[in-house]
């Protein structure tokens, strides 16, 4: 195993284009790091620099505490799994897995033991004598992983390994990669544009945009406490709802009420930060009181903000169980049953908002339903800078 330290790493090409703008990341021994972001954010470039396939313009990359900027890929004790599998079509699975071992002149008897161990771990012993052309996409990906495992490196690098697989196979391979990490405990750096992969696989996530790490933390930290509007919208499926509005004086304070309370009521322990966000639906105005500490937004009444709420934070009363919930009568435009829950779509302050409710809570359109807004995890962003303010 090995730790990974990235210190103020920059990458500028000869044409002057800067694709990495001072990246700082620390990964402990055995952690699973996800580099996630849209196309062109710099995540694959950073992975290639860790691997030694791209040069570092400035800054330092340390593996196991050792600076590797000037080391060749073969001297970094890493193994890489590519998006394209990169298998030799004329070789059998056995030969593909043992190819690197041959290059390093590992004795044949030891090669046999390694191939058997790796193929058993990945449940592909029955495929050893087949060629890549006779395998499915998921099987080819297992072979690519097996070739990396055979090296027993200090660190694995994965470059969007599941992007060529269909949805069902992606889910299966996700589980296999996670189990593999749990068994081996080896440090993994994994590049993806898929936020579901990021949330389900990683111990730590670095969300990237335009060559800058927008936020670095655990999946739950990034999901619950996004640092800006980009992170909040990128992580989560369906994505976070963004409702533009003005800060107004709160309407009273929250107090515990009965479960059958009418729309407009509030359920939960008392709070009074003094501010709320005014929202409008079908000509009806309401104020969503905000549970931030009194004084957090002192003197900011009238400020333009963006209120962020996850779909599961707007729900039916039976589904909502947290302490600070406020009800508004809503008439949904679209109803999408998904099986375990139902998604409701409606307009609030001119924005399209998604709510997640119990499948039996709303079964038809054309009438108002009380939806409960859980403000305990509400986040506020500045409307101009898009940075989080509360």
TrEMBL record:
The UniProt keywords, alphabetically, are: ATP-binding, Cell inner membrane, Cell membrane, Membrane, Nucleotide-binding, Transport
Q: Which InterPro entries match?
A: AAA+_ATPase (IPR003593), ABC_transporter-like_ATP-bd (IPR003439), ABC_transporter-like_CS (IPR017871), ABC_transpr_MalK-like (IPR015855), ABC_transpr_MalK/UgpC-like (IPR047641), Mo/tungstate-bd_C_term_dom (IPR008995), NA-bd_OB-fold (IPR012340), OB_MalK-like (IPR040582)
Which lineage ranks, top first, belong to the organism behind this chain?
Bacteria, Pseudomonadati, Pseudomonadota, Betaproteobacteria, Burkholderiales
Q: Does the keyword rRNA-binding apply?
A: no
Q: Name one GO molecular function term.
A: ATP binding
ABC transporter domain residues are 4-235
Q: Which domain of life is it from?
A: Bacteria
Give the gene name.
ugpC
Q: Does the keyword DNA damage apply?
A: no
Record-linked SMART domains: AAA
Protein name as annotated: Sn-glycerol-3-phosphate ABC transporter ATP-binding protein UgpC
């Amino acid at each position: 195993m090995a730790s990974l330290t990235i210190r103020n790493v920059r990458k500028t090409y000869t044409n002057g284009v800067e694709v990495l703008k001072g990246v700082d990341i620390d990964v402990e021994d055995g952690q699973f790091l996800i580099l996630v972001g849209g196309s062109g954010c710099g995540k694959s470039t950073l992975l290639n620099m860790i691997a030694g396939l791209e040069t570092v313009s400035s800054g330092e990359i340390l593996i196991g505490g050792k600076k590797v900027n000037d080391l060749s890929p073969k001297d970094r004790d890493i193994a890489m799994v590519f998006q394209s599998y990169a298998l030799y079509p004329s070789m059998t699975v056995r030969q593909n897995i043992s190819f690197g071992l041959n290059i390093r002149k590992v004795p044949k008897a030891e090669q046999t033991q390694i191939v058997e161990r790796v193929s058993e771990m990945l449940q592909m012993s029955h495929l050893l004598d087949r060629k890549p052309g006779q395998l499915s996409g998921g099987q080819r990906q297992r072979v690519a992983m097996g070739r990396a495992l055979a090296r027993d490196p200090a660190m694995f690098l994965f470059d969007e390994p599941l992007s060529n697989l269909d949805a069902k196979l992606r889910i299966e391979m996700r589980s296999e990669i996670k189990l593999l990490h749990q068994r081996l405990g080896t440090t993994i750096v994994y590049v993806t544009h898929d936020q579901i992969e990021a949330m389900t696989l990683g111990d730590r996530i670095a969300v990237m945009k335009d060559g800058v790490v927008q936020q670095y933390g655990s999946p739950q930290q990034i999901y619950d406490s996004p640092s800006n509007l980009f992170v909040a919208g990128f992580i989560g499926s369906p994505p976070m709802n963004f409702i533009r509005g003005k800060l107004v004086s709160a309407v009273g304070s929250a107090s515990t009420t009965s479960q059958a309370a009418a729309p407009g009521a509030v359920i939960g322990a008392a709070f009074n930060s003094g501010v709320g966000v005014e929202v409008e639906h079908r000509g009806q105005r309401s104020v969503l009181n905000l549970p931030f500490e009194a004084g957090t937004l002192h003197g900011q009444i009238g400020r333009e903000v963006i209120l962020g709420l996850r779909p599961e934070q707007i729900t039916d009363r039976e589904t909502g169980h947290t302490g600070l919930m406020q009800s508004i009568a809503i008439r949904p435009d679209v109803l999408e049953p998904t099986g375990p829950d139902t998604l409701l779509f409606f307009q609030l302050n001119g924005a399209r908002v998604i709510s997640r409710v119990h499948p039996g809570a709303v079964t038809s359109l054309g009438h108002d339903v009380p939806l409960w807004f859980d403000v305990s995890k509400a986040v506020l962003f500045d409307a101009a800078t898009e940075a989080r303010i509360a």
